[in-house]
Write a structure and sequence with these properties.
Elements: E1 4-5, H1 15-26, E2 35-38, H2 40-48, E3 52-58, E4 65-68, H3 71-77, E5 86-91, H4 97-100, E6 106-111, H5 116-128, E7 133-136, H6 146-152, E8 161-163, E9 171-175, E10 192-197, H7 205-208, E11 212-214, H8 226-241
Parallel strand pairs: 1-4, 3-4, 6-7, 6-10, 7-8, 9-10, 9-11
Antiparallel strand pairs: 2-5, 3-5
Helix pairs in contact: 5-6, 5-8
Length: 244
């Protein structure tokens, strides 16, 4: 699509840019329900995913209609240390509990995971290994956090994700660093929910009480990074289901 230029923006005091800066700082949507995404890669992923791209602000030529904005202005509102080159306002899909747990359910719960890099990586792995969706449980970082969006690398545009506690259909399996059954002994072909807690606190007591503990065998280390553990369990489930 040939690029067409809308009105240029040259001031850091522009009201819309100030609104975008606040949203990026707080990890939230605009009052109109749009999500700021940074960088040409995420813009490309949003377009590839068929999402509505309401506005694009760029110092380059991202294709389509865009507002020319100098790098110094983009850098002043971005969450990155340097200018991302492009910031877009995107309308993310609205997902329901039914979307996340559609049959045959394979969902992952992020239980109190505050590190945005870990959270985004888990969501990316969930899409890669055929999960039906993810639940951001109480205490987990907001999905609109710009670091989560970058680490998810576009998966948040396609993977059904909901936030907050909900009813959990299927068997629960909680990642545990010291005890539990080996992943290959679990039948992930049945409706399954994988729970991954924070590295500092592990799976919360309420979820742990309902779940079968699962321990990934390791040599030389006591435990794995939360995102690595989630990825291994999701890969095992995908292997059993014949999707990898």
């Amino acid at each position: 699509m040939p690029a067409s230029r809308a009105n240029p923006i040259t001031s850091t005091r522009n009201p819309l840019l100030q609104q975008i800066r606040r949203c990026l700082q707080r990890g939230e949507l605009t009052p109109g329900g749009l999500c700021p995404v940074e960088g040409p890669h995420l813009l490309e992923e949003a377009r590839r995913s068929g999402l509505e791209v309401a506005a694009v602000f760029s110092s380059g030529d991202p294709g389509g209609e865009f507002h020319p904005v100098p790098d110094r202005v983009l850098a002043s509102i971005a969450s990155t240390e340097t200018s991302p080159g492009t910031i877009a306002l995107v309308r993310l899909p609205h997902w329901s509990v039914k979307d996340v747990f559609r049959a045959p359910a394979l969902a992952v719960i992020l239980d109190g995971i505050q590190d945005p890099g870990n959270a985004g990586t888990i969501l990316r792995s969930a899409e890669a290994f055929g999960a039906t969706g993810a639940v951001l449980w109480t205490g987990t970082v907001n999905r609109y956090n710009p670091k989560v969006l970058r680490a998810a690398a576009g998966s948040l545009f396609r993977l059904p994700v909901i936030a907050g506690p909900c009813d959990l259909p299927g068997a629960l399996y909680a990642a545990h660093p010291q005890e539990g059954v080996s992943p290959h002994r679990i039948d992930f072909r049945q409706p399954s929910v994988i729970v991954v807690g924070s590295e500092a606190h592990g799976v919360s007591a309420a979820l742990a009480a309902k779940a079968t503990p699962v321990r990934i065998p390791t040599a030389g280390v006591e435990s794995l990074n939360a995102a690595v553990a989630a990825s291994i369990l999701l890969w095992e489930a995908a292997k059993q289901r014949g999707s990898v």
